[in-house]
Amino acid sequence: MDKPSRSTLATEWNLESGRVFLNHGSFGATPTSVRGEQRRWQDIMEAEPVRFFEDMMPTVLQDVRQKLADFLQCDSNDLALVENATSGVNTVMRSLEFAEGDEILVPDHAYQACRNTIDFVAQRWGAKVVTVPLPFPIEGPHVVMDAMLGAVTDRTVLAMIDTVTSPTGLRMPFEELTAELEGRGVSVLLDAAHGIGMVPLNLDELGASYTTSNCHKWLCAPKGSAFLHVRKDKQADIHPLTISHGMTFPLGDTTRFRHEFDWTGTRDMSAHCALPTAIDHVGGLLEGGWPAIMQHNHDLAIRGRNILCEALGLTPPCPDEMVTCIATLILPEQSEGGGIPLHEPDPLHVVLSEKYGIQVPVWSWPSPRGRYFRISAQLYNSEEEYRYLAWALQQELA
Ligand SMILES: Cc1ncc(COP(=O)(O)O)c(C=O)c1O
Fold first, then answer.
1. Global confidence as pTM
2. Parallel/antiparallel/unpaired status of strands 156-162 and 362-365
3. Pocket residues for ligand 1 (CB within 6 Å)?
4. Residues of the chain with pLDDT > 70: what percent?
5. CATH ID of 8-22+287-397, from 3.30.470.20, 3.90.1150.10, 3.40.50.1980, 3.60.15.10
């Protein structure tokens, strides 16, 4: 089968030709013009570094936070600009204090790096991490609700939940779950790494104690641009991973939270400076803006999933309503491989990449145990690419 073409919008990106790039989910991909904007900010910074950091940066970053806040429907003063979602989770977990025996809920589909953070902090305080098993295949969002709420006890203080799970690509019922958990006095740490630009987020309405999201994934902003949103009543307890001048700066008319997070030492903020361009430029690629992009990517992921299921005789492991712009499928049990540690490449991933030029993740997940592959759908992808993947898998799994 011939190599497939990308969609016409792929000209906005500088993706390597000849590759079938079906893994936007892992690290995103940034359009050429957004990268140009990041470089413009680096040039401004290096042309007069002192003026940039001391005079310009406070205003520039205030504008960036305001632009993000308008997109997320929250107060810009509740947003901290961090490097990535793992840093967001670490910022919260390493700020909080726990009592011995406090319980922290985590679904077994949670992203391993964030799970590691929870385990590390819990161990230090003698808190207990309660892993909530979720099935996969899964019947629907109600299964998640029942499992998570059923695990709450009078010792539960915190729950880390995903907007969309990484290994299984499930859109969690995070709005309802957050309302229920917060209503029971359980603070929610929302891992929205797959969040902004993928699912609508209205942070004030959501009411989670803490939300962190990567802008480099579905907003297509440069790498190193993420945010942490902390609800006002929680801000006094949350401090940046790097304590700097902000701790002792005179408050003036701002908050300690703002001071502490606005300056965490000299760092390259060009990725964050390019956020307004990412929001406007990518949002302008489809008529209807971001809501239309999310819908388009969702529809493409569903079509891709259907193409693969039909060609390979697979059953969709979750209803369409739990699919966003990524979709995970379960490889047949008899497929060779499986049971491979997460840090090692699956041989099927290597073959797909080296023999067919396809970039798509394949991994074995310990709980629920299975060998999965996950497709992504972004504006540059085309249906043909999923057909090509289906054909390649037919050759390799035959
Ligand atoms: C659900 C989830 N959480 C957290 C992360 C971590 O993102 P980062 O490595 O950018 O911190 C990812 C990355 O893919 C993810 O999928």
1. 0.97
2. unpaired
3. 26, 84-86, 111, 113-114, 162, 166, 191, 193-194, 214
4. 99
5. 3.90.1150.10
